[in-house]
Design brief:
Number of domains: 1
Number of helices: 4
CATH topology: Alpha-Beta Plaits
Helix content: 25-40%
CATH class: Alpha Beta
CATH architecture: 2-Layer Sandwich
Order of helices and strands: EEHEEEHEEEHHE
Length: 175
């Protein structure tokens, strides 16, 4: 399946993006639901994956995460979408954007249409998405035929290559 990069709504070009969500502080599912609810007030949530419990990636001294993925439709350009996600993280209590720190919510743009973009503040597709089963498995659930624009492979093939080294367990659904 190819990205739909020419979707229009009332003559406004709509873009298809895939967002990864993660939380590992206290009420992880509640934080994830609040984030999805908040996103749905400004973006069109097309599909949301199940929630998955996953082990922390790159560290061992943190709580497990709850992760999911969402396919959205938006008129926002990539940097505007990034700023909206950062504002949403702050609104929901995220203190810092440092790597490998506990967080109430983490929102990342994984794909945006079939765009390949590298700036100082934003890289699309997400540079490490294909290495992280907690990103790829939820994406595969909602669109297994999605093509990674750099690797030119379907998400389902990327998931299969990741194997079972990273523990990812489906635990529930968003509404």
């Amino acid at each position: 399946m190819e990205f739909l990069s020419n979707v229009y709504y009332n003559n406004i070009k709509m873009n298809i993006a895939y967002i990864s969500l993660g939380s590992n502080i206290e009420n992880r599912i509640e934080h994830s639901i609040k984030a999805l609810d908040e996103l749905s007030t400004f973006l069109m949530l097309k599909v949301v994956s199940s929630f998955y419990e996953t082990e922390p990636f790159g560290v061992s001294d943190q709580n497990n995460f709850i992760n999911c993925a969402a396919e959205i439709e938006t008129s926002l350009q990539p940097h505007d979408l990034l700023n909206y996600l950062i504002d949403t993280e702050k609104k929901l209590g995220r203190a810092s954007k440092g790597d490998y720190k506990p967080r109430t919510i983490d929102l990342d743009i994984i794909f945006y249409n079939d765009l390949i973009l590298e700036t100082t503040s934003l890289i699309i597709p997400h540079r490490q998405a294909h290495l992280r089963k907690f990103v790829i498995e939820p994406l595969c659930e909602i669109n297994p035929d999605l093509i990674h624009p750099v690797l030119k492979k379907p998400i389902s093939d990327i998931l299969q290559k990741l194997g079972n080294k990273q523990r990812v367990k489906r635990i529930g659904q968003y509404y």
